[in-house]
Amino acid sequence: MKQLEHPCQEALTLTAVLAALSDSVRLDIVRELAECGERGSSAFDCDIANSTLSHHLKVLRLAGVIQHRKEGTRCFVSLRPCMERAFPGLLASVLRFHPADVRAEAEAPTA
Amino acid sequence: MKQLEHPCQEALTLTAVLAALSDSVRLDIVRELAECGERGSSAFDCDIANSTLSHHLKVLRLAGVIQHRKEGTRCFVSLRPCMERAFPGLLASVLRFHPADVRAEAEAPTA
DNA sequence: ATCTATGTTCGACGAACATCGAATGAAAGA
DNA sequence: TCTTTCATTCGATGTTCGTCGAACATAGAT
Fold this sequence. Notes:
Two copies of one chain form a homodimer.
Chain A: H1 14-21, H2 24-36, E1 39-40, H3 50-63, E2 66-71, E3 74-79, H4 81-86, H5 90-95, H6 100-107
Helix pairs in contact in A: 1-3
Chain B binds a DNA duplex (30 and 30 nucleotides) through helix 3.
């Protein structure tokens, strides 16, 4: 069973992590993983092509944010503990804030 | 004296802030501002063209991270307090970590 | 009024990115 | 073995980004 490559902890860079988190699709993915733990990679409800999702997961993986675990033909992703060691508290500091659209919905009058 | 435009606090988005911080030149600028306070915009010692520096400052300004203050022909930039209100603690959480090259220098043997 | 110093904007360029569909790969099941 | 299923990779396309030099704008000095 071929596993995907993960960079070692020393190779993680702050700018790469921030770049990985600066996309709304990827930020949603990370948020979901932080709240619900490991998920099958097909369990994300974003309206994008499968190949695009795979690309975003790769970006997050190469930045050190998530890890892939293959099991048969399926693939599970979760937050990478290594990330917390390299940049302790960073992820929590980012996920504390909700994305712009959610804030807008919460603040805007319903009408 | 024409001042430059700054977005209002409600318009700031998390992804835009992260994207603004995901460039090493801009991260260095923010780090310097956080440590030394307001600076003249020509006082940054990055080896880039003036127009490129201006571009980076614009990205940071539009993301809400910094503010511009013009005084005569000169221009001073500083961290924007509004940023701390919109995303309290975020900047500190990011700046706590040093950029990759600095870490590499600190960890790698000199030989 | 003209010059000078300081910054911003414009136009252009290559590099990197987000996206998609198609092709490929890998593993389980018939 | 053949098929099916799931995910990654490839190739293509349009967009965005970082960078530069040149042109412009503004304010002070001569």
